[in-house]
């Protein structure tokens, strides 16, 4: 299938199907925010988008988020950006930003509901890279991080409820054709394992999700390389996804739990947290660059969530050495912060924000 056909398919499946989205999304006017910029460069636009989104979150009526939460959500700015344009104001260049109103409101309500429930972490545990083929009649597509609609939203809700972080492949996977829908449906693990190597993650899950009729779905699941397979009983989208994640957790619960400081970080490893990740591309960039500087076999992502990632680095506890080597990554700015997961604060030895 050509890339053009794939994107048409993705649009039909996740944006146009009455079974997957709520009607009237386009009727909501965007939230407008104007920010000054020094020039029209991409880095300047990204920084202005983040600052602008923080202002948007601060101006929302009703119950307010705390500043720390708003700073974390501001890193997701591009995810809710519907469009932008440049204009001149008093001989100054400004960037006019247009954010998806309903998507922003849903994200804020989700964060508030999590905070009000007493759970300060959206997801818990080590992340799982999910390769999921979705079939609806003659339409089929690989679910990637940029997908919109009820399907990815439901997957997020289920992962939150189960405390199991899910990471989806980057959108560029569609163009590169690394993993095909047909391969996932046939349960071919080799292409999945090869493509997963780019993400530096050792917890991988693959599946094939099919709309049977009406709102009833079915799915098959597999842990590639482990020879473990299971099937979801037919049900609603949420029920089928819930069974899939439950199956993964049940089949992997006997894995050896790492000792040391928690979150799979040993006493002789250095914990490095990186915030400001706006998508899978950022995570891949950080993971690859850290591997190039510190050694691919010495860097391991242990937690991804809340636009941050926590890495365990084999360095015999030599924090200063890691700091010196990471100075060459100019997009990383050192900050005094900690990485929080599962309600337990894990203080990183070194913390950065990606710019």
Write the SSE topology.
Elements: H1 3-16, E1 31-36, H2 42-59, H3 67-74, E2 81-89, E3 92-99, H4 101-116, E4 128-136, E5 139-142, H5 150-162, E6 166-167, H6 172-176, H7 181-186, H8 190-196, E7 204-213, E8 216-223, E9 228-235, H9 237-252, E10 269-275, H10 280-294, E11 299-305, E12 308-314, H11 319-326, E13 332-334, E14 339-341, E15 344-346, E16 350-354
Parallel strand pairs: 4-6, 4-7, 10-16
Antiparallel strand pairs: 1-3, 2-3, 4-5, 7-8, 8-9, 10-12, 11-12, 13-16, 14-15
Write up what this structure looks like:
By secondary structure, this protein is α+β, with helices and mostly antiparallel strands. It has three domains: 29-99; 128-252, Rossmann fold (3-Layer(aba) Sandwich), CATH 3.40.50; 269-354, no CATH class. It is 35% helix and 28% strand. It contains eleven helices and 16 strands. It has helices at residues 3-16, 42-59, 67-74, 101-116, 150-162, 172-176, 181-186, 190-196, 237-252, 280-294, 319-326; strands at residues 31-36, 81-89, 92-99, 128-136, 139-142, 166-167, 204-213, 216-223, 228-235, 269-275, 299-305, 308-314, 332-334, 339-341, 344-346, 350-354. Strands 4, 5, 6, 7, 8 and 9 form a six-stranded mixed beta sheet that branches. It has a five-stranded mixed beta sheet with strand order 11-12-10-16-13, with helices on one face. A hairpin with a 2-residue loop joins strand 7 and strand 8 (216-223). Helix 5 packs across helix 9. It is globular. It starts with a helix and ends with a strand. Mean pLDDT is 77; it is low at 2-26, 118-124, 254-260 and 337-346.
